[in-house]
Specification:
The structure is a single chain. This protein has 207 residues and is mainly alpha-helical. It has 11 helices and 5 strands; from the N terminus they run ββααβαββαααααααα. It has helices spanning 25-44, 53-60, 76-82, 98-106, 110-123, 129-142, 153-156, 159-167, 173-176, 183-188, 192-202; strands at 3-7, 10-14, 72-74, 86-89, 92-95. The chain has a 3-stranded mixed β-sheet with strand order 3-5-4. It has a two-stranded antiparallel sheet with strand order 1-2. The longest helix is centred in the first third of the chain and has 20 residues, at 25-44. Mean pLDDT is 80; it is low at 1-18 and 43-48.
């Protein structure tokens, strides 16, 4: 595939047949760095779709309140390694398989509802994807010590995940929380150990 690089007003097609004399040295160097970086990523992720697609999604994203439905696409580089089926990324659902992406794009599945709940949670996090991810990371790090007791506890004990798993099978939950899902705030008030004990009783996860 022909790779194109744009700098200022000069549009250069980077390919073996491109006359080197037509390309300024600084631009040719930038193109070489770009191709080397792309080649490096594609070497370690040969089955991944365009690795820069996620950057484009983040750049073009809208605030959570402006998102009414989230399209799904396949990008299995990170998901396969973490054994996750899907994740919400700035208003787009990234799945590990194309079949799962097609199912989500054709109908509302329980997994898609799970991801849509994350979108509603972002609405209640100052209507900001970035603040949502920062909070998510903070809760994840706080629960890391629980991994010694429960496998993948840092993920399971995340308040955002607890709410999403509790209500992913409720067809009317998205309508009830249209202005923002806030149950996670109640779970966030508990310490990770308290969340683990509570979830063990409720049997939401295998603790």
């Amino acid at each position: 595939m022909k790779t194109k690089f744009f700098v200022g007003k000069l549009f250069c097609s980077v390919q073996p047949s491109c006359p080197r004399t037509l390309v300024p040295p600084y631009l040719r160097k930038l193109c070489e760095i770009y191709l080397a970086f792309r080649s490096l990523i594609c070497t370690f992720a040969p089955r991944m779709d365009n690795p820069f697609k996620l950057v484009a999604i983040m750049w073009k994203s809208h605030r959570p309140r402006r998102v009414t439905d989230m399209p799904a696409l396949r990008n299995n580089f990170w998901l396969r390694r973490k054994h996750y089926d899907a994740m919400t990324f700035y208003g787009t659902i990234v799945t590990a398989t194309q079949d799962e992406a097609d199912r989500m794009n054709s109908k509302m599945t329980s997994l898609k509802r799970h991801e849509m709940i994350h979108m509603l949670q972002a609405r209640s996090t100052c209507n900001s994807w970035t603040l949502f991810y920062l909070r998510y990371l903070w809760y994840y790090l706080r629960a890391l010590p629980q991994n010694r007791r429960v496998k993948n506890a840092a993920y399971k004990l995340n308040p955002f995940e607890i709410e999403a798993y509790r209500h992913m099978y409720e067809p009317d939950y998205l309508e009830r929380c249209e202005q923002g899902a806030v149950e996670w705030k109640q779970w966030a008030k508990l310490k990770p150990r308290q969340r683990r004990e509570s979830l063990s009783v409720q049997k939401i996860f295998k603790m």
